[in-house]
Amino acid sequence: MQKPTVVISMNNYNILLAGNPNVGKSSIFNILTGENQHTGNWIGKTVETKLGTYEYNNYIYNIYDLPGTYSLNSHSKEEEVTRDAILFNNYDLIVIVMDGTSLKRNLNLVFQILEYTSNVLLCINLVDESEKMGIEIDDKKLSEILNINVVKTSARKKIGIEELKENINKSINEKNNNNFSINYNKDLQDALNIIEEDIENINYKRYLSLKILENDKELINKIMGNKNIEISESLINKGKILKKELEKTKSLDELIIDGYSKKEEEITKNVIKKNYDKTYKKRLMIDKLLTSKITGIPIMLLLIMLVFFITIYLANYPSDLLFNLFAILETKIINIFDFLSIPDFIKLPFINGIYKTLTWVVSVMLPPMAIFFPMFSLLEDLGYLPRVVFNLDGMFAKVNTCGKQSITMMMGFGCNAVGVTNARIIDNPKQRIIAILTNNFIPCNGRFPMIISLITMFLASNSLISMTYLLLFIILSFIITLIVSYILSKVISKDDKTSFVLELPPFRKPNIMDTIIRSFKDKTLQVLKRAVIVSIPAGLLIYLFANINVSNISILNHINNFLDPLGNLMGLDGVILTAFLLGFPANEIVVPIIIMTLLNTGVMTDISNLDVLKNLLVENGWTYKTAILTIIFSIFHFPCSTTLLTIYKETKSKYLTFLSFVLPTIIGIILCTLINLLI
Questions:
Q1: Are 222 and 89 in contact (CB under 8 A)?
Q2: Residue 182, by phi and psi: left (phi above 0), alpha (psi -120 to 50) or beta?
Q3: Taking a C-beta distance cutoff of 8 angstroms, is the pair 498, 428 a contact?
Q4: 1: helix, strand or coil
Q5: Per-residue pLDDT tens for 53-85?
Q6: What's residue 197's pLDDT?
Q7: Cβ atoms 380, 516 nearer than 8 A
Q8: What contacts 242, CB < 8 A, 6 or more positions away?
Q9: What is the pLDDT of residues 263-306, one digit of tens each?
Q10: What does pTM read for this prediction?
Q11: Alpha helix (H) ranges present in 442-491?
């Protein structure tokens, strides 16, 4: 998408909206701007930001919703976007949104921004929740300490929004020129004063002096280029010498943190009063239960299985409805074709190829995604997903990857393409690549119907036992993911520093309708759109392969025969491998292709009755071992076309895209072959 443009006029003000993740910043943005929003990418970045507008006292306010960040010390794309927007963009005010339930944690970012500019307004959000927890915040005292305007809000309850608008206008007109500074220890303070003496008269001397001391060459060069400031090499060398002297006792980072901590203690002592009630204590008990080494992971597994069960059970009804609607529409289209006397060589490929494949993908793919993504988004908004990351972080650390990879894996359960996109949250390039390459090892919603059907037909008809088998296969996929991630961490040479702030935000009541609409729009429709685009040519190809004969044998059967030796080695056959190959557009059509081939109909066919389907498979040589190996290959084989396109879009690398295709396929072939030989 293009970067949103702003038309600047005499009556326009530009506002940056900054803050930590999970502080309700987007809720503030949505309430202020309503429907007047646009989404785009900052120039040269893949991280999206939003622009919205609102009118107040005959002035137009352009609000830029910056990516959530914990720091202006750029380690990730989100942090870099936010930092560069604050340092190098023209704006009238920065509104920093803070979490009233965790004020102290938010102060680090506030201090860093105030050391650069005083054009700041503090918005303490979620005050309704902080009050419920027994936390009282003296906003007037905080305003005195920081010498900036402070407003308390609750975006979800629309409390304090008018006061926020009024204070935005007030803060812009006041033009606060106060130079905020942290009282660092004497040695660091003296070093900063020495550097500041050699810097020309600018209002962010303290911030620039810290960067010179830190020897942040990349940022210093950016500041010189964007601010037209000359920083001599001698001053940079002076900074190196001063840093070396300072770090004889403590590192520079520790000295800076010490200064921040003293300021945090001052604010905590004078501004925050805590009187925790019974409700808050109960929340702590629940938190301990969810993050305990003994109970955390079992609860996580049960909850994930519950999400799967609800998704699969509820998706059957809208799927059947869509199938019926598309069947009625198919009859109408055939009648139109017949009325127009359209010849069969056009009608049949369109109806039995393109239309059937396209409607199959939509009918099977849309309902589970429309159920799964909102549920996971609700868990995220509720505050549970960070607890999952907490439980799994140690495992990922042992294989040299990042705990954030667990989030991308969980999104992969819904759709691997979404999981790949979510890898943007991992700031380390090496770890991001690993997360992308291994995300397809996690079975997506498109593979669950086939996996569960095979489990039910060949392994266990009881629902509880079936879910247990499903859980075992998921655990297998998780173990293989960890093993491959460890191997890749040793093979991939790039090893940049990473930062991972593991935060456990308080539990919050999610906005259900907003979450459903947002997840449907941002995830479900985007994935479905890509799948539909690929399904159209794929449907035509499948029909042609099934209906064009060469030497009295269809192209489809030629492919089956060619793949039979490999299939037999793996404990499968050519029909199954061909179905996976032709199911490249979407995993949902693998079983229909198998049925079409076995019945020799030339048209993708569904058998909804599992007893009838099992009889067909058994008559064609299927056993419980065939079912197990088909499930394993379903989990470990090449990504679908939508995921593969997303991988290329995210990495811009043909090599990595090819590797993401080959890697799981080789693992699937090896696993199936070994199991086939051992069983």
A1: no
A2: beta
A3: yes
A4: coil
A5: 999 988 899 999 998 888 887 666 677 888 888
A6: 87
A7: no
A8: 191, 194, 195, 213
A9: 999 998 999 887 766 666 777 788 888 888 888 888 888 888 88
A10: 0.69
A11: 448-454, 463-491
Taking CA atoms, 419 is separated from 637, 642, 657, in Å, by 16, 12, 15
Helix (H) or strand (E) holding 510: none
Whole-angstrom distance, CA of residue 479 vs CA of residue 92: 51
**Residues 541, 532 contacting (CB under 8 angstroms):** no
List Cβ neighbours of 17 (8 Å cut-off, separation of 6 or more): 25, 28, 29, 63, 64, 65, 66, 95, 97
CB atoms within 10 A of CB 277: 10
Distance CA 640, CA 355 (A): 19
Give 283-289 contacts, CB < 8 A, sequence gap 24+. Answer: 283/133, 283/506, 283/507, 286/507, 287/387, 287/504, 287/507
φ/ψ region of 21 (left if φ > 0, alpha if ψ in -120 to 50, else beta) reads: beta
- The amino acid present at 353, given as its one-letter code, is G
Q: Which uninterrupted H or E stretch holds 586? A: none
Pairing of strands 120-125, 93-99: parallel
Give the bridge partners for 149, in sequence order. Answer: 121
Sequence length of the chain is 679
Element (H, E) at 493: none
Q: Is the pLDDT of residue 589 over 90?
A: no
pLDDT digits (tens, 9 = 90+) for 375-415: 877 887 777 877 887 888 888 888 888 778 888 888 888 88
Q: How far is Cα 130 from Cα 137, in angstroms, rounded to an integer?
A: 9
Token output for 35: 């429907």
Question: Per residue in 490-522, pLDDT tens?
Answer: 888 654 445 445 556 667 677 778 778 877 877
- Specify whether the CB–CB gap between 286 and 147 falls below 8 A: no
| Alpha carbon of residue 668 to chain centroid | 26
